[in-house]
Write a structure and sequence with these properties.
Layout: H1 5-15, H2 55-76, H3 97-102, H4 111-119, H5 123-129, H6 131-153, H7 157-165, H8 168-188
Helix pairs in contact: 2-4, 2-6, 4-5, 4-6, 5-6
Length: 191
C-alpha cells in the first residue's frame, strides 16, 4: 500500500530526498481523438428550425377545426329557447326523457340553448341557460382557432394543450364544474 501524497512528501523531506510524484507512463495516455459532443444538423434542416407538426397531426387539426366550426354554425342557426332548454328539438331530436319522467332538468339540459346564445355572442344568456354549456361553447370557439392555427402553420400548441387538458386533475375539475352547473340548473328551474 502506498502512502498518501502528503505523507509521502513529509517522509521524503525528512529523509532529505526530493519528492517526485508518480506520473502516468506515456503509453497509458489515450492517443485517439475525442468523440464529438454533438452531431451537426443535417443540411436539409438548419439547427435553428422549429419543430413543426407532422402532416398527420395537421390533418387531425383540420378535422378538429371543421367539427368545431360545424358545431358553432349549427348553434348559430338555431333559435335559443326562452325556457332555457329544449332548443335541441329544432334539430329533430326528441324532448328530454329525464324532464318528461321527473319534471326536473337533466345534467345536459340547456346545453344546446347555451351554445345557441354563445354563437350569437350573448355569453350572459349562454351562462343563464347552462353555465357549463357556456364554458363548452367558449372552449369550442377557442379550440376552432387553435386547431385552425395548428393546421395552417404546423404549430404544436394544440397537442400541448390537449395533453394538459387530459390530465386527471383537470378532468376532475371539469366534472365538478358540470355538477355545479347541474345544481344551478336545478335551483333556477321552477318545479
Amino acid at each position: 500500500m502506498s502512502t498518501p501524497p502528503r505523507r509521502a512528501f513529509s517522509a521524503s523531506i525528512e529523509r532529505g530526498r526530493p519528492y517526485t510524484p508518480r506520473v502516468t507512463p506515456h503509453d497509458a495516455i489515450p492517443t485517439h481523438p475525442p468523440t464529438p459532443r454533438a452531431t451537426p444538423a443535417p443540411p436539409s434542416r438548419p439547427a435553428t428550425a422549429p419543430r413543426t407538426a407532422s402532416t398527420g397531426d395537421r390533418v387531425i387539426a383540420s378535422v378538429v377545426a371543421a367539427v368545431c366550426a360545424a358545431l358553432l354554425l349549427t348553434a348559430f342557426f338555431l333559435s335559443p329557447s326562452a325556457e332555457g332548454h329544449g332548443t335541441h328539438t329544432q334539430l329533430g331530436l326528441p324532448s328530454c326523457g329525464w324532464v318528461i319522467a321527473t319534471g326536473r332538468p337533466c345534467a345536459t339540459c340547456g346545453m344546446t340553448t347555451s351554445f345557441a346564445y354563445a354563437s350569437r355572442g350573448d355569453l350572459a344568456g349562454a351562462f343563464a341557460a347552462q353555465p357549463f354549456g357556456a364554458l363548452l361553447a367558449v372552449a369550442t370557439a377557442t379550440g376552432f382557432w387553435i386547431a385552425l392555427h395548428a393546421a395552417l402553420t404546423g404549430s404544436r400548441l394544440a397537442g400541448t394543450l390537449c395533453t394538459g387538458i387530459l390530465q386527471a386533475r383537470v378532468l376532475w375539475w371539469l366534472a365538478g364544474a358540470a355538477g355545479a352547473a347541474w345544481a344551478y340548473k336545478l335551483l333556477v328551474t321552477p318545479v
